[in-house]
Sequence to fold (265 residues):
Amino acid sequence: MERVLALIAGVPWGMKKKYNEILQINNQDKFITSLLKEKPPIPDYFKRGSNINRQGPELVKNLADLKPLKPEQFEEISQNHHAEIIDCRDYEAFGRQHILGSYGIDLETNFPTYAGWIIPPEKKIFLIASNDQEVQEAVIWLRRVGLDNMIGFLEGGMSAWVESGFRTNHISQVSASEFNEIRSKKKINIIDVRMPSEYETKHLKGAINIPFPDLRQEYTKLKEDDEYFLICSSGRRSILEKKGFKKLTNVRGGMTGLNNLWVER
Fold:
């Protein structure tokens, strides 16, 4: 059985047995404890995945193609509480200009996991991308985590949106060096949105750890009028703006950039 499980996971059994730390534990009680107490957070889509697997997923051929939507149509959608807009462009592009209320989930990150974690499956999904290829890539990944309710995408992308005169929002971004200078001059609020295991491995002194999925509820513990600097592994995870926070600064490069800068931790 364990050989079968190893093959299903895509890793040869010999390699898994030799290099997987958990499989080096010879005591049964310690092995069980390590699995139960040290397991990573479980994304929301895992909970609905079991039902989808039992019933079988909807066939792709039965799913409607996404419709290209003009900026005027998209503007109406942005006001709809039953819809979610996913902007899958690079986070730098998202930071410069994006539609208020949209989720910035960079395709270059672990896109399906993050989207499947925070997007309610009952919501109608609309996409913003840099090109048609990115739209198609996003569709494939979203369907793999059970998000089939995709309706359309912004035709012409954000260029068409701004040329139509519609409002855009911005998120301030600073490099690791700029952040270090700011931090040396005044006391600031730092929110580390990485997972607990990432935070425990290495983090900045004084940083508050609120994993990004938990911000959906934990944001109520923060003061909306305060200024916050957001840290993740590479500077691409946050959903606070969607909750009404305006004084946000994203540390571009995240802990990767800060580690390379040898910032005091």
